[in-house]
């Protein structure tokens, strides 16, 4: 009837008109992430601010790629004549495979596209690599770094170099425009956590005798 008070909005419509603080905060953080990542993508192309350093960044990219690490670990495993070394290398191989699977699963679930300023010229990619979250290089760098520091006896300068390598590989992902900062940060956290899984499931002649009979 005319002059009657307007009916109250349904609760779900009120929620849409009054977004939560958490939603606003997440949207703001996402916007900051995209803005800062684009500003830091100084090697994203030859015409970028640091475009001349792009070839060096791509060499660093290859150093953190999964294929060289898998091939190198498998070759070392086949060539090793020490039972202790074979145990370490077999677990490193397990860690690298676990890393590839977990990153692929998360990327497939999240399906976050690569930054718009990324030039898709990466070394040996698969279909899931069109997605950005998380950074597989950052995950691998953190995982390998923890593994090496724990299981290899290295002098202090070499230990520092291993940590620096992991940090440089991770930073290069944003500089090359491959990833946003949150992709890299989550990748580092995931790699750190995956190492704990590897330690918990450590393969040894006692726990996995069938695997050790192959070598």
Automatic annotation (TrEMBL):
SUPFAM superfamilies: Acid phosphatase/Vanadium-dependent haloperoxidase (SSF48317). Keywords: Endoplasmic reticulum, Hydrolase, Lipid metabolism, Membrane, Nucleus, Transmembrane, Transmembrane helix. Gene3D superfamilies: Phosphatidic acid phosphatase type 2/haloperoxidase. Residues 88-199 form the Phosphatidic acid phosphatase type 2/haloperoxidase domain. GO terms for cellular component: endoplasmic reticulum membrane; nuclear inner membrane. The lineage of its organism: Eukaryota, Metazoa, Chordata, Craniata, Vertebrata. The keyword Transmembrane applies. Its EC number is 3.6.1.68. The chain crosses the membrane at residues 89-110, 152-172, 184-203. Its main location: endoplasmic reticulum. Belongs to the PA-phosphatase related phosphoesterase family. This is Polyisoprenoid diphosphate/phosphate phosphohydrolase PLPP6. It is a multi-pass membrane protein. One of its GO terms (molecular function) is sphingosine-1-phosphate phosphatase activity. It catalyses: (2E,6E)-farnesyl diphosphate + H2O = (2E,6E)-farnesyl phosphate + phosphate + H(+); presqualene diphosphate + H2O = presqualene phosphate + phosphate + H(+); (2E)-geranyl phosphate + H2O = (2E)-geraniol + phosphate; presqualene phosphate + H2O = presqualene alcohol + phosphate. The keyword Methyltransferase does not apply. It is found in: Endoplasmic reticulum membrane; Nucleus inner membrane.
